[in-house]
Design a protein that fits this description.
Blueprint (H helix, E strand, L loop, with lengths): L10 H10 L2 H9 L9 H7 L4 E7 L5 E7 L6 E4 L2 E6 L7 H8 L2 E8 L4 E12 L3 H8 L8 E13 L10 H29 L3
Antiparallel strand pairs: 1-2, 1-5, 3-4, 4-7, 5-6, 6-7
Length: about 200
C-alpha cells in the first residue's frame, strides 16, 4: 500500500529529495506508514481553536487559488475522523473556490497558529453542500450570520511542521483582554495603597 504522504511526495518530489539528500529520512517515515490520515484528538483540539485558515483549490487546468477563511474559534468543525466542515458566507461573489471545486475536488487546508508557533498542512478533497438545513445550522451556530452553503473537506493526509521561522504573534483580542485585566489590577492596588496611606495618617 502507498503511504498517505504520497499525496504530496510525487515521483518528481522524491527525485528532488534523492538529489538533495533527504530521501532516506522520508523513506523511513514511509516505512512506518507516512503521514497520518485521520484526525487525532490533539489535531481536533487545535482545529477547534483556530480563528482562520487558508483553503487551496485549483482549476481543472491546474491554476491554483488560495482563499482565506476566518471566524470565531470553532467555526472550522471536525465532523468525524476524516471530515472537516465550515459554513460558507457571501463575499465578493467571485466564486473562484466554488468554480474550482465544481471541476476539480482536490483541495488543501493550511492552518497557522502564531501563538503556539505551529503550522498544520492537510491534503484532501472538498465538496460544496447546498440545501442541507441541518448541516448548515450545525456549522453556522458558532459563527452566526446567514451562510449560503457548506463546504466539507475530506482529509487524505496531514503533517505538522516545526516552528522554525514562525513569528510569535498573539491575537489582538487576547492581548487586549490581558491588558484590561492588568489595568483593573493596577486600579485595585492603587486604591488599596491609598486606603492604607489614609489609615496610616490618622492620629
Amino acid at each position: 500500500m502507498r503511504p498517505a504522504s504520497d499525496v504530496a511526495f510525487s515521483a518528481s518530489v522524491k527525485s528532488e529529495q534523492e538529489k538533495r539528500g533527504s530521501r532516506s529520512h522520508y523513506a523511513r517515515m514511509e516505512e512506518r506508514g507516512g503521514w497520518p490520515d485521520r484526525i487525532m484528538p490533539d489535531l481536533e483540539q487545535l482545529i477547534g481553536s483556530v480563528r482562520s485558515f487558508y483553503l487551496g483549490t485549483a482549476s481543472a487546468a491546474g491554476q491554483p487559488y488560495i482563499q482565506h477563511r476566518g471566524g470565531p474559534p470553532g467555526f472550522l468543525r471536525v465532523l468525524d475522523a476524516t471530515t472537516l466542515g465550515f459554513a460558507d458566507y457571501r463575499g465578493n461573489r467571485q466564486y473562484i473556490t466554488l468554480g474550482n471545486l465544481a471541476e476539480n475536488p482536490r483541495a488543501f487546508i493550511f492552518l497557522m497558529d502564531y501563538a503556539q508557533r505551529l503550522r498544520i498542512k492537510l491534503w484532501g478533497s472538498a465538496r460544496v453542500v447546498e440545501g442541507d438545513a441541518a448541516l448548515l445550522s450545525r456549522l453556522s451556530e458558532v459563527a452566526g450570520g446567514a451562510p449560503e452553503r457548506c463546504i466539507l473537506f475530506h482529509v487524505d493526509a496531514w503533517d505538522r511542521n516545526c516552528p522554525q521561522h514562525i513569528p510569535h504573534l498573539l491575537p489582538a483580542e487576547d492581548v487586549e483582554r490581558t491588558i484590561g485585566a492588568l489595568e483593573a489590577k493596577v486600579v485595585e492596588l492603587e486604591a488599596r495603597l491609598r486606603g492604607e496611606a489614609h489609615a496610616g495618617s490618622g492620629p
